[in-house]
Amino acid sequence: MFNQYCLISSVVAGRGRIVFRISRIETTRFFSQTIFCLRSSTAVGRQDTSVPETRTLEQPELLFNTLLQRRTEHLLGSSGCMKQARDHGISDTQYTRLGEQYQRELFSPSGNTENFGVPTFSALRNAHKNSSVRGLDALLLDGLIAFSLHNSASSVELQMQRQLTDMRYPHEWFPAARALQRTWHLHVGPTNSGKTYHALCRLETASSGWYAGPLRLLAHEIFDRLNSKGIACNLSTGEERKTVSLDAKITSSTVEMVDTTKTFDVAVIDEIQMIGDPQRGWAWTAALLGMQATEMHLCGDESVVDVLQDLAKKIGDRLIIHRYNRLGPLQPLKQSLNGQLAAVQKGDCIVTFSRKNIFSIKRSIEELTGLRCALAYGGLPPETKSSQARLFNDPESGYDVLVASDAVGMGLNLSIRRMVFETMEKFNGTNFEIIPTPQIKQIAGRAGRYRAAVPTMGPVPEAPTTGYVTTLDSEDLPILFKALSHPTVPLVSLGLAPTYPIVEHFASLFPPSVSFALILKQLQLMSFTSPTYHLCLFDEKIQIAHLIDEAKGLSVADRYTVCCAPINLRDRSVPANVLEFANILGQGRTVNIAEMQGIDLEAIDMGPPKNINSLQRLESLHRVLLIYFWLAYLPHPLFLLTVRQRYPVNFICNEQTAAVKQKVEQLIEMGLGRMRFVRQQKGQRNFKASRFEREGPVIQQAPSSTFVCNSQPVQQ
């Protein structure tokens, strides 16, 4: 027993592994707190006066480590764990040997970097914090299976896996692009500097071209702009394709939908700084490396300059940098609104980070000032956000103020005179934290932006317009000023993810009994890159793969396609629908929207939402409809970078399904003015309240290699 408690007496981090420090003082302290009777019953019979007085609950690591050891022993001895190991091709003899080795590595003080599949201490703590013992057990089990598969593989199998997971040279994935002499025009400047405008002017004159943006809203805007000027432009996003003309030489798309198989005169990649995003950065990297355009126009901020200069030299492309200043000055105001929403004026945008506060602030402003408010937050359908933006921009609409979440920072064209931060804090799923500096700058920079009431861009006006930014409360002003004066932090690496052919080949190296979720996790654990790149997180894909594990009859291509769908796992109604979609694919059935058992079409019969629950119900329905359209959409047959196929035969899309989607969007917009809440004061925004304020309901999934978020703030 003494050795056991010495082992768990103290924990520190080392090399990302659990490392235990054994200390006489700490060990005796643990005894004094937990098993005091041992001190009084010692043979010597004297007290250790060198031990400082402590309180039992001041060291939660001790309690967690005890739990961790107990759960590991329970896991290794359970018949269910042994069965799962057999299902993955691990024999009972291997299980016994590797299980003991896994346990030693889990509690090893050496921090051995060869502990493949062994969860990190922080991942285990997060799994337990977010999903209790069930989440901890799931992560320990996943780690055990991954560790066992890796250590039971032959040297030849491991060599093949390592070859596939070597991602140091992703530019070699695109030989056609490497055969071209490409020139990059990097348009760098802050928000409202005209950088994208200049790139689009070049696209308009191109004989052929492509626009790639981060959001459907932006893809739609460019689509509308070019066609309104008589320039034939087609649209391609994850959920829809609009073909204006088969002879159209220009396409506007989301960045994930770029075609790397065709040659273009000009390509425009917008918001290039997102190439460093830990989730989606891979799409910008793939577009930048793979697009066959002799003239590439990249629009972003100063943070990307160094890393793109280095990349251009490595792959032999020419880089020209164009720098821009804001068209009009951005002026931080020295005074806040002193907490008075009655001081809100026409043309203001109030930014908050809670759906509940969005509606309460809207109500307060309308009651105190008589000004009508438009709304924009992440849970709204893109079409509704675009409609609300048009209302705000149109001086004749009667909507004079915008109340928004951080969704206002990108994708919406807005005529904002003054940006007002209701708070400088945002809930991160665990507690409140100050908004990151780049996000503050992005949001604040929307003030003074040149925009018309319609989504088409006009020429840049000659007279500059000053944008103003302030806070609602005076206590937040120093944070705002510090963020706006802070220099831009350069990116150090670019996001990267394996292409579908790599995923397919890697999966073929495992027995059919191995779950696809575990294959993705193995791929994530084994993949390695050069310092120029970082591997984007697989967490959501692994969670979705866990979710559809029980679906039968799915190929690797089917499973990976579903994993790539725009699925919001924070919404409790979504997982059941995703599993139904997967079962339909596995069974080879053909359905229309009305035949889906789990889709909540009854929400439409309730009419315009009158409270937050009915609004959330419609928003959930819209999310499920988007997944349906995404699966039914038939992309260009050469778009193989992300997924192999979609399923227009299995999921019928016709006028009826389009009408259902449109009706849901209309009902959501009609209900935006009906929500009534009382705004919470900052002192009331504790952890418990924040969980109530989150955008979507909590669902618990099997943990991935890092952790499962139990709740999230309003997302973009």
From TrEMBL:
InterPro entries: DEXQc_SUV3, Helicase_ATP-bd, Helicase_C-like, P-loop_NTPase, RNA-DNA_Helicase, Suv3_C_1, Suv3_DEXQc. SMART domains: HELICc. GO terms for biological process: mitochondrial RNA 3'-end processing. It comes from the Eukaryota. GO terms for cellular component: mitochondrial degradosome. One of its GO terms (molecular function) is ATP binding. Keywords: ATP-binding, Helicase, Hydrolase, Mitochondrion, Nucleotide-binding, Transit peptide. Gene3D superfamilies: 1.20.272.40, 1.20.58.1080, P-loop containing nucleotide triphosphate hydrolases (3.40.50.300). Residues 176-294 form the Helicase ATP-binding domain. Residues 336-510 form the Helicase C-terminal domain. It holds the Pfam family Suv3_C_1. Its EC number is 3.6.4.13. It catalyses: ATP + H2O = ADP + phosphate + H(+). Its cofactor is Mg(2+); Mn(2+). It is found in: Mitochondrion. Its main location: mitochondrion. Coiled coil: none annotated. This is RNA helicase. It comes from Neolecta irregularis (strain DAH-3).
